[in-house]
Design brief:
Helices cover about 65% and strands about 5% of the residues. Strands 1-2 form a two-stranded parallel sheet. It is elongated, with a radius of gyration of 27 Å. The protein is mainly alpha-helical. The protein contains 14 helices and 2 strands.
Amino acid sequence: TINDAQETIESVSQFKQDVASFEEELGRLASNYKKQTGFPLTIIVDELDRCKPDYALKLIERIKHYFAIDGVCFLLFANMEQLVQQVEITYGPKRAHEYLQKFSNLQIVFPKNREKYNSNIKLHAQRMLNYFVGNEFHEDHSDYLSSFSDYLNLSLRETEMAARQFSIIYSASGGRVHFFAICLIIVIRVKDPSKYQEVRNSNFGFGSLVKYLDIPEDSTHQNLLNLQRRTAPLFVTESEYEIMSETEKRRYFNFGGDRYRYEEIRKNVFELLDQFKF
């Protein structure tokens, strides 16, 4: 109707006035800030990759449309691959990178200092275990968690999640857990939930674990290979055990008990994990 059309026009007109008023006020604020500091008013938006991809895309589009004001600068931290995928879903697969370039003057990919990052992972794992469980863990214990976390490329956030899950399992069991197995299995569950479902299947044997981890047999990976060996008893299937040499049996089962005892431990480990739907 004519009345509805009139209301719509008035609504759009009011919206434009509100936007103009907002831009004017923000421009004045930015100008005053630059006079006082010599720098543009900088608004930092962090962890866009934690938002829903479609929300993140809408946000940067609105920043472009409503905040294109002299003296105002936006610094965005985001997973560009995720945004590219969302652009392809929303607007089609062609020229996704070109579309996103319209919303930025400069894009920088920060290089990762692998040695420093590894150190951060280890330190973060230690801090998280101490925070969640207490100071009863030896430094070697955080090494187990950090070694698997680093090798499977967990982020600091995922490492924290793994440490938190371990602390809950550890406390719930009264400290009576197979430490090596729990660390490895939780890291796999955090990193790759679908693979975890395979791992918990009784048909997933030690050979499957070795193939999945694919740890190089060299001196730089001895710690990981040792941890893999320590978890072996929980994953060796009956058919694998039957074809093992006596040397291999002594190598993998020299921590006490026989294969059937470890079958029971494995069962208990997954029963404990399944109690918590993280």
